[in-house]
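User: Can you predict the 3D structure for this chain?
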Amino acid sequence: MTNITKPTLKWVGGKTKLKYLISDALSLLQSKNNQTFDYYEPFFGGGSIFFHLKDLGLIDSAYLNDAIPQLVSYYEIISDRKNLGTFIEQCEEIEVKFNKLLSQKERPVSEYKALVSEFNSIWVKEKIVSETEESTNQKKYIQINPKTKKQKIRSAVLMQAINKLCFNGMFRVNGNNQFNVPIGSYKKVNIVDTENLINASLYLSNAQITCSSYKEVIENIKKKNHFIYLDPPYIPNSETSNFTDYSSQGFKYKDHVELGKIFLKLAEDGNNVILSNNNNQLAREIFLQNEKLYAYEVLVSKSINSKKDGRGKIGELLVSTFELQNIEEKFDLKRI
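Assistant: Here is the predicted structure, written as structure tokens:
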């Protein structure tokens, strides 16, 4: 029986339907070329696609990257099986504590805030930079990294816990790089799934995990004929959104335009690439710059989103360097 390994974290923009589509596309591509490909995912996030492809045995060498240092540190910790005993023990302690409070009909806001504060203290240091008669205790917030193994494990535990306890599984930081998502409404929480975690740990242990810009990852791709999945922060669908001010993990309009150019270069170099985004006019203008690219709309379900109108069936744009004709009907793809 094939393993079913789920992402260990909830993550906005899950890929429940796309993971089956992409695995079928990769399988057909491998059969057609009679070869396997190295797998690159420069915007890793929750890793739904990666875990599914590993379950099916479709990838061996994998290169995973994300720009969020807290997230990459988390994956580095759980990828080492020697850390799992301590990690699971601390997660279970938090789970028992919060479920006891929830069973008593209490909303453990202060306990949750304490976890968030501890998490932020590992990654951000407050420093008083000036003190005058007019203004006292002016603070500067400096990003730091956990230094000891104990700190890194604790950060991973807190990342796991606040992800399962916060509103909609969101990861958001303020201008000082401090996590600031409020607690969600739950009757019971499952902080850690031990069996799933062990499977995920095994898969991650055989991958190269980095924390850098997606451009740096792509620049380090030396050979051709890779399989690359590009899943950048999505361009908002709302007509009222001022896209020049839009930023998610630092991704703005100019960054998408630059990604569009890099995408074309990857295609010209003979790589096999699939890119996903919202299917809106701006996304089509940016990413459909070459007649040799194949573009499709696919309807996907969105259950984790900060806004109600971002949930339900949403039309997503898939742009591929190779044709998906053999799976168009199966996934009800609409050719653009």
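The beta strands are 39-41, 62-65, 124-130, 138-143, 207-210, 227-230, 272-278, 294-302, 312-320, 334-335. The domain at 16-62+212-335 is CATH 3.40.50.150 (Rossmann fold).
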